[in-house]
Amino acid sequence: MKVNVAQLKRNPGAQMDIRLEGSPPSLKKDIAPEATLTSPLTVRLNLSNTGTVIVVKGTLQAQVLLNCSRCLREFTLNLNVSLDETFRQEGAGAGMEMDEEYGIIPFSGDIIDFTTVIRDNLLAALPMKALCQENCRGLCPYCGQDLNETVCHCRKPVGDPRLAVLGKLLEKNRDK
Ligand SMILES: [Zn+2]
Ligand SMILES: [Zn+2]
């Protein structure tokens, strides 16, 4: 996902709209160990040359395949991510260290390669805890059945006489 910015670079104040589409092999398989890109990625970007840096704003749209952390089923998540990054020609500006501190990304020559930026933004948009649906019931901890599909009878409290006595004692104390 490389863009030639030779023209833009030479004209302070200039803007450029681009649309990239595809499934870069570098992204397709391993956005994250648990996520797989399943649709071509659509990237819409607006690049503007402020005179000192190139500001890039836009959106990423993609579908990823994830495994639900509760029921372990695979499901597809639509990602719609907004992107806002700043690039600077290598060697220009106050220096690499300052730029790094402000999150300004260096590029060399006339080409900006967006692959890493796109991957990082997709990664940041992935949920910490993937859920196929907000109220996924998950798997029964006793029999392992998917509780979204079946109702099992494991949930009934198993009576342990010793615990029952303890329970009564606790109740008594609470009443006091
Ligand atoms: Zn689930
Ligand atoms: Zn069960």
The termini sit apart by 71 Å
Structural class: alpha+beta
Oligomer: single chain
Beta-strand content: 25-35%
The count of DSSP E runs of length 2 or more, i.e. the number of strands, is: 8
Q: Average pLDDT across residues?
A: 85
The helix tally amounts to: 5
Number of domains: 2
In one word, what is the shape? elongated
Distinct bound molecules: zinc ion
Parts with pLDDT < 50 across at least 5 consecutive residues:
none
Please outline the major beta sheet: 6 strands, mixed
Task: Give helix % range.
Answer: 10-25%
Task: Describe the overall structure.
By secondary structure, the chain is an alpha+beta fold. The chain has 2 domains: 2-125, no CATH class; 137-176. 23% of the residues lie in helices and 34% in strands. Strand 5 (54-67) and strand 6 form a beta hairpin. The protein binds zinc ion (2 copies). Residues 68, 70-71, 73, 131-132, 136 line the site of one zinc ion.
Topology:
Blueprint: E1 2-4, H1 6-10, E2 15-22, H2 25-28, E3 36-37, E4 41-49, E5 54-67, E6 74-89, H3 96-101, E7 104-107, E8 111-113, H4 115-125, H5 161-175
Parallel strand pairs: 6-7
Antiparallel strand pairs: 1-8, 2-4, 3-5, 4-5, 5-6
The structure holds zinc ion (2 copies).
Structure summarized in a few sentences:
With 176 residues, the chain is an alpha+beta fold. Helices cover 23% and strands 34% of the residues.
